[in-house]
Amino acid sequence: MQLTLPLQLGNHVRGFLIYAAGDTAAALLLHQFSWLRLLGMALVGGLLYSTEVPAYFR
Fold it and tell me: Can you spell out the DSSP letters for the chain?
């Protein structure tokens, strides 16, 4: 079985913003904000959102 997913720039941007914003809000509430954490979560979120979420909702 072959799985083909169209990776679109919009999905990367949405994931980048959504995951980073959510984690940043939690980090600020816990007084654990870090720029490196923000960058890491944004990159991971951009990659996960662009592949996993569209595949889940198909």
Answer: --------HHHHHHHHHHHHHHHHHHHHHTT---HHHHHHHHHHHHHHHHHHHHHHT-
